[in-house]
Amino acid sequence: MGLSVEDRLAIHELVALHGHLMDSGEFGRMDELFCTDVLYDVSAFGRGELRGYEAISEAGLALGDANPVGHHVTNVCVSEDPDGTVRVRSKAIGIYADGRAGSVVYEDVVRREATGWRIAYRKVVPRRTPLRP
């Protein structure tokens, strides 16, 4: 079963909503982004795998001022595997209060729940070196 245009639009809006909620500290709304059993992999940052949106909220609060002030998501690509798994790959730019910026790739698996599309799995992959052909 292919994804409809409406599904794709909802998934794009889901990925965009992440930055808005994180940047405004609306951790009480994580259920609008994530499945209750979400696995959020931030191992590349030494933070391991976070399970559940409460763990994600706690990690964000623990970072405090070390959090980016702006999460900007772009280059969103949605695909569906033959088994129906829906994957989303996007790029994100994080802007920090001191003007520094960082780039990551989000590798997501999203799932349609009764309340709409939610992120079931996210791996955050930092981009630390430029392309070297």
Describe this structure in words.
By secondary structure, the protein is of the alpha+beta class. The chain is built from 2 helices and 6 strands. Strands 2-1-6-5-4-3 form a 6-stranded mixed β-sheet. The radius of gyration is 15 Å and the shape is globular.
Morphology call: globular
Order of helices and strands: HEEHEEEE
Number of contiguous helices: 2
Give the spatial strand order of the biggest sheet. Answer: 2-1-6-5-4-3
User: Strand tally, please?
Assistant: 6
The whole-angstrom Rg is 15 Å
Main beta sheet: strand number and arrangement?
Answer: 6 strands, mixed
Mean pLDDT: 94
Beta-strand percentage? 35-45%
Structural class: alpha+beta
- Cα-to-Cα separation, first versus last residue: 38 Å
Residues in helix, %: 10-25%
Which stretches are poorly predicted, pLDDT < 50 over at least 5 residues?
Answer: none
Key words describing this protein structure:
single chain; 133 residues; alpha+beta; six-stranded mixed sheet; 2 helices; 23% helix
Topology:
Layout lengths: L4 H19 L10 E8 L7 E3 L1 H11 L6 E11 L5 E10 L5 E13 L2 E12 L6
Parallel strand pairs: 1-6
Antiparallel strand pairs: 1-2, 3-4, 4-5, 5-6
